[in-house]
Amino acid sequence: MSGVFVDTNILICSEDGAHPTKRDVALQWLAVLWQRGIGRTSTQVLNEFYVSATRKLTPPMASGDARAEVRRYALWQPWQIDHATVESAWAVESRYGLHYGDSLVIASAQHLGCTFVLSEDMVHGQHYGAVQVINPFSASLAILDQVQ
After folding, report:
1. DSSP one-letter string for 60-126
2. Per-domain residue ranges for the chain?
3. 21 vs 8, 13, 73, CA distance in Å?
């Protein structure tokens, strides 16, 4: 499986009415991922999304709406964090000095065979093995033409 892995912060931006410009950009990227069938994520990201959406957004998302979004992204067949993923994350953490949560994101993307990770929180353009981080607020959608 290949595709584009979406980090929690991009999903949150897509729901954040306090920042309409960023919301619109995030929604454009997500729309292309849905249209092309190349969106990927993990159970970790979906759990983080639910907590952040219902507690950190202003105003917070209603729990039922957040659950509906998590169920919708379940169509992307999210990567299940298992021991092999944890081991991979530890290796990423040790090699690159990333925080453990970000290391889990990279490890999940690697296990899924993703080309890119969309994230605002990691360094744009940074490569972690075969996976490259793309900040969708600094990049063109045209980069997705590299994804099969």
Report:
1. PPPHHHHHHHHHHHGGG-PBPP-HHHHHHHHHHHHHH---HHHHHHHHHHHHHT-SEEE-SSS-TT-
2. 4-146
3. 18, 9, 22
Pairing outcome for strands 4-6 and 116-118? parallel
Euclidean distance between CA atoms 139 and 143, whole angstroms: 8
Q: Is the dihedral of CA 67, 73, 74, 80 positive or negative?
A: negative
Separation of alpha carbons 107 and 81, rounded Å: 9
Is the entire prediction scored with pTM above 0.90? yes
Mean pLDDT of 138-148: 85
Quote the radius of gyration of the chain (alpha carbons, Å).
14
The CATH topology of domain 4-146 is Rossmann fold (3.40.50)
